[in-house]
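Hey,
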Amino acid sequence: MRRSSVAVPIKNIERELICPICKELFTHPLILPCQHSVCHKCVRELLMLNHDDSFDAGSECSLPGSPRSRVPSPSMERLDRLVRSGGSRGSISSPGWRRGSVTPRVTTIPCPGCQHDIDLGERGISMLFRNFTLENIVERYRQAARAAVAIMCNICKPPNQQEATKSCMDCKASYCNECFKLHHPWGTPKAQHEYVGPTTNFRPKVLMCPEHEMEKVNMYCEVCKRPVCHLCKLGGSHANHKVTSMSSAYKILKEKLAKSIHYLISKEDQVRTQITELELLISQTEENGQLAERQANEHFERLFETLQERRSEMLRSIEQSRNRRMEQLRSQVEEYQGMLENSGLVGYAQEVLKETDQSCFVQTAKQLHVRIQKATDSLRTFHPAADTCFDEFVLDTSREETLLKEMCFGGVPDPPLIDLSQSKVYNEASICWRLADDHLPTDHHVLEYLKPCEDGEDGGLWRATDRVYGSNTIVNDLEPDSLYSFRVRSCRNSMFSPYSPEVAFHTPPAPVFGFLLSDKCGFCTERLVLNKRRDAVESVAGAAFLLAAERVQTGSYISLDYIIGDTGISQGRHYWALKVEPHSYMVKVGVASDTKILEWFHNPRDTSSPRYDHDSGHDSGSEDACYEVSQPFILLTLGMGKLFIPKASSSTANPPASDTGNRVLPMPHRLGICLDYDSSRVFFYDADTMRCIYERQVDCSGTMFPAFGLMGSGKVQLEDFITAKRLTF
């Protein structure tokens, strides 16, 4: 047997013979379409993760003598290694089909070599070629690794079993010299069998086409870069592909491979030089990393020393002030104790009063009287000698704490800023941010959001989104009528920037109601212009309005032009938002029932009556109660930069909580409307702050529609809910 002669040349190629999944020597490797090889059993294990009946036996690449009942269960340890090695980019989807199923089999697995998803087609792994060349190399490596262990003859029986000298590729057995002569005698067909040196790797004499199992592979497809048979070229999947003969492909590829190998060998010195440079870079990286750690530690040590010094100085100042004040207060206590009857001053004064000699008494009593007078005055105007409050020693470290939190390396990116004008929050939040004008490229961003506790404190946990590679992202499943805080930070080279300033958004009180404007009901084409998207309508004043200007000034208004939404509401709570252009003369917003809309348009009103428009903000208000019943929807009026609250003409109307008695408010930038159909109530909000401006009861009879009335020049723009709509698909 040839043993050590092949051990030296292939001794150092072991890493090329290791399966990227199981990390062991290849066993019956298969060539994937991306030209990487994987063990047959590893491919089966990957596909078996999602389906127990994913495979059919009997193909060329199926292991002989290995029925499906004996297929080993997947090795989870090996699969874990695959995931850790980078296989997470791919996914295993629709692994196969059950026998007899009419559903085509679609097999997609991640290649552990190039990390691309590999579609194996309907036939799955039966379409893959065995890599016999790699098998032979692995077998030679195994033999070299166990050079001292001989391959024994399969015919001889112990204890006289001999070492094999030949292996027959047709019989797939190994023989000693005597047994080979006995089983392959001259003059018989067996004498023509192909034999090689002792081996345990038996392969077919001819490579067979996996698609047409009985056909030999004799051509090479230059498009698919794989061997094919003549049936594949005639009417198979390679019919329109450019193919060449196997001998030509063999010659060309062998020349290319030989040239590439020769080039690599000629560049061996260059490769060794580059390896030396890389090793030097590794050493420098280690040294520079350690130096950076030492420098950072030194900076922190200096900060700690500075803090300790300042701490000692400030505590010393507090202690000195405390001692001085306590000494002053103690002196004052002693002084006041002298005023007591049994104390020294009073007792001394009482003794002086016993002096009968007038000249001696006057001499002593003068100074004593001054002392007692001072004590008496201090009783009338009592003031402590020292202040007990230490407010001047209160230490505000908020600025320093912020600076410490923002302390970062020189390469740390600047924090982004959340763009309030572009960010919108409904049941989903679309948060946009912008970077500094001179910012360097960043790797990704991370958005975090928090719902504060009901008591107003941030007791919850910040939740982070996945990595965001743009300047905006969407957060799903926010709770209605809740306040959320958002912040974002950037990352570059594994270093995070400080957080952006936190911003707060309030979610609407109900799910978003998406609709467009309808031109089918009461739409006036002469004075209303509807845009192509049907989310904005504009009222053009026109000649009719100019001619009626005199009547407008005297309180006799021309007709409103009505437009409603294209979707109705018959149950539940719904929210939508809109924007009224500040220059608009008069816009009325609210809801309308289908029954009242039909009644209104079939029974025209007298448009010259001063009672026609009861809450324009310009009327006297005396007609409110008598006319509001006949209006189809008019609930709230906006115009000329103001918002007009209707008078409380019924017990169900509620004025805004913060503006009771004030019917004229500044027009909000965005107005939100919430209809609670089941409770027959409608709410109006400042959509930016979600503050309820006005609410009242409505007659929810039939189907309710968002409705608008415009007079004079003006424009209504519906809030863009495309993000919310798209996320609900």
